[in-house]
Amino acid sequence: MKRRTEQQEAICADIIQKAEPFVQQQLEHDHSGHDWWHIDRVRKLSLKIAAKEGADSFICELAALLHDVADEKLNDSKQAGLDKVEQWLLLHVNDLEVIAHVMTIIATMSYNGGQNPPMETLEGQVVQDADRLDALGAIGIARTFMYAGSKGSMMHHPDKDFSQHEYRAAGKSAIYHFYEKLLKLQDLMNTTYARELAEVRHQWMEMYLEQFYREWNVDDVQQREEG
Fold it and tell me: pTM, whole model, 2 decimals?
């Protein structure tokens, strides 16, 4: 990682400061769990992981801030979202290498049913890990049901097999999303520190699902009466 001069650091700080209100404005009406607070958590996680792994904190922070502005779930198409981010970068960043690096991260960081190629750089691995960590644990559980609600999806359908549906196909339940994606993320973390964080969050989801099924089947009542 190249060390920056004080002047370069000041330029980086100014870019970050300009990115924040742009992202807030772009995502202010989101009710799917991809709002500003998701972005802020991913930014903070990215900075923590970057510090542990020796990644470029500026690249990580900028990519983390902008990543969901380009999300195809929030745009007419994936390309439309990428074009929006690139236009903003070209207006505010003079370093074409920085722009190319950030755009590569954003273009390939989504889960996409596990079909995207591996991240090419440490910074990409860091931001991808941070985004995936925010899909785990207590926050991940809350975001799963928030997204399902925003799409009119059911909470759980115990008699329906969704395995033949395409990833992101409409009509799948929130609980099924744990199995098609969330419970797989622990093993897909790129960095050592993210794997440590993911282990704890993964355990919380497993405990949640155990309790969910007890309550769904009213087994918790039976256990209490028998106890």
Answer: 0.91
